[in-house]
Design a protein that fits this description.
Length: about 140
Amino acid sequence: MPDVQFSNLPDVQRPLLEKFYRAYRSPMRARGEAQVWVARQADIVGALCLTPIAGGHWLTGLFVAPAERGRGVAAGLIAAALTSVEGNVWLFCEPELRGFYQRIGFVEVQDLPQELAGRLARYRHTKPLISLVRPAD
């Protein structure tokens, strides 16, 4: 993975992120206030968003191009992005991804900030999700 670069995507380049998500028919989207991070080779091969919330950030939109999966892109991208934020970082994921996130420092959590608890309850109407947090150092 030495040829992959991780960086914060400037707001003026956000259309590139939307193009990346659409190219793979991903339902992911970047919210306006989110900090966007990308993994690049010649083009974007992975992305995630960090949205500020009370007490930390909410990680959403993590997507890695299928050809790059299993090469450490997601873990590297998360590590790079989390160096830029303070506080806890929460995320929702499908239960089968629990092990991946636990290996990089996330733990399952039931007690969520109010704004995330409501979202998780709504999302669970259509899919099984768990909530995880990477506690602040």
